[in-house]
Specification:
Pfam families: M20_dimer, Peptidase_M20. With 469 residues, this protein is an alpha/beta fold. The protein has 14 helices and 19 strands.
């Protein structure tokens, strides 16, 4: 049954590659293998696939197209596998090294994207357009352009005759934006890796005048957690109110939680981040960054950073109310009131500890709390490995000479979480630079400057080459 379904999906995927709608975008066959033009062609073709979870998900078809490009570029057909999972699929391609005993270098990304409604966009989100130096379309930033650039870099290395000592494994998950089921399966399969380069994290910043300012790589990410808070009462007729009211009790608890601040924390990654980021800032914010890096108990520094949405998540665990529901009739006392608290937990802190703190802060005896998180596991920060730090610094220097390089922590979740869960060091290290005003990933009119392609390929060739030796 499963084998038949897999063959059906792959056959359908290969057939859809040549459908008229997708043929409107340039084929990678029109560009030289390993060239900048090929990277743009692959990105445009990838954007044209509507790789969105649910009915009509074209992630399996996109995986089949990418496999065809890799095989045409020199990968053995048997070394590129596509595994269907529910309505999606994931791809794993292996470039075999000369030393079978060496642990592999994993290059990690994803090929699914978040939903995009054409009626809301200025351009159709699944019709790639290059205009005024930008590639437009869903996935232009997150992260089909990066996938294309990384693939092209590997193909360029193959054609240049590079011989890796350790295997290089390129993998693309198929539901990173939703359930992360394929992400977990891939990490389980590759948990013997030496380290992971996650091309869906990190990156550089362009100033609004277009000048590159700095580059950061992600050495850690916060743990995602959802906690359900519930208060129940016997209820009754609304004409006979009682002192205990489930909605009132829950509301008071939520206010107390909203006013609570978790103890600020530092790690090697965030301490270095604040020290280096302070050099890019001025005034009160720069002073607060320097002070916090030296003393995470500095109240003045904490107040400045906590007031800035861009940095409040960098100084410790945060929890916020995201959903609330209560009552069962307009003329009845509520029998139940529930709320969801979403937390982004500092690396090294266990979700159970946070849940216990929320229960204590709520200070409501009738309240129960349970962890309802899905698709998330706790993970610690990756070590600041000298070999990786040296390799990524050297690679950025080749792509964007003179640009400062320093680590950062991601407040969001990525596939790195699953590798770190298996104690495999994972680093977000995309070479894509973007202006703050151009950051539309997950939003409308997503776009990325195409001038990222040439330096991005140089960066990946250097990084992959150094770490695969």
């Amino acid at each position: 049954m499963a084998i038949g379904r897999n063959l059906f999906l792959l056959g359908a995927a290969l057939a859809l590659i040549t459908t008229p709608g997708l043929a409107q975008t340039p084929s990678s066959d029109t560009a030289a293998i390993g060239s900048d033009a090929q990277a743009l062609d692959i990105a445009k073709r990838a954007i044209a696939f509507r790789s969105v979870a649910g009915a009509g998900n074209q992630t399996p078809q996109l995986a089949a197209y990418l496999k065809s490009v890799l095989v045409a570029g020199g990968f053995a057909d048997s070394d590129v596998t596509i595994t269907p999972v529910d309505d999606t699929a994931y791809l794993v391609a292996r470039w075999r090294g000369s030393d079978p005993s060496a642990k592999p270098l994993v290059v990690s990304g994803h090929i699914d994207v978040v939903e995009a409604k054409p009626a809301d966009w200025q351009r159709d989100p699944f019709t790639p357009v290059v205009e005024n130096g930008y590639l437009y379309g869903r996935g232009a930033t997150d992260m089909k352009l990066d996938a294309a650039v990384a693939m092209t870099a590997l193909l360029r290395m193959k054609h240049a005759g590079f011989k890796p000592r350790r295997d290089i494994v390129l993998e693309f998950s198929g539901d990173e934006e939703t359930r992360m089921k394929t992400s977990a399966l891939i990490a389980e399969q590759l948990k013997n890796a030496e380290l992971v380069i996650n091309i869906d994290g990190g990156g550089g910043r362009f100033a609004e005048d277009g000048k590159p300012q700095f580059f950061t790589w992600n050495g850690a990410e916060k743990t995602y957690a959802d906690f359900e808070l519930t208060v129940t009462n016997p209820g009754g007729h609304s004409s006979a109110p009682r002192p205990q009211n489930a909605i009132n009790q829950l509301s008071a608890a939520l206010v107390r939680i909203g006013q609570y601040r978790f103890t600020p924390q530092l790690s090697d990654v965030t301490r270095t981040f604040f020290r280096e980021a302070a050099k890019q800032k001025t005034g009160e914010l720069a002073a607060a960054m320097r002070a916090f890096a030296e003393n995470p108990k500095d109240e003045k520094a904490i107040a400045v950073l906590a007031a800035d949405p861009a940095y409040v998540g960098q100084i410790g665990t945060t929890c916020v109310s995201t959903m609330v529901s209560g009552g069962h009739a307009l003329n009845a006392l509520p029998q139940r009131a529930t709320a969801n608290i979403n937390c982004r937990i500092f690396p090294g802190v266990k979700p159970a500890e946070v849940m216990a703190t929320l229960k204590q802060v709520a200070a409501e005896p009738a309240l129960t709390i349970r962890d309802v998180s899905e698709g998330s596991v706790a993970n610690d920060a990756s070590p600041m490995r000298p070999d990786f730090v040296a390799a990524v610094t050297r690679a950025v220097g080749k792509a964007w000479p003179g640009v400062p390089v320093f680590p950062s922590m991601s407040a969001g979740a990525s596939d790195s979480m699953w590798f770190r869960y298996h104690h495999v060091p994972s680093y977000g290290a995309s070479p894509t630079f973007i202006k703050e005003s151009d950051d539309f990933s997950h939003g409308l009119n997503e776009r990325t400057e195409v001038r990222n392609i040439a330096p991005g390929i140089r960066y990946y060739v250097s990084l992959f080459g150094d770490l695969a030796k």
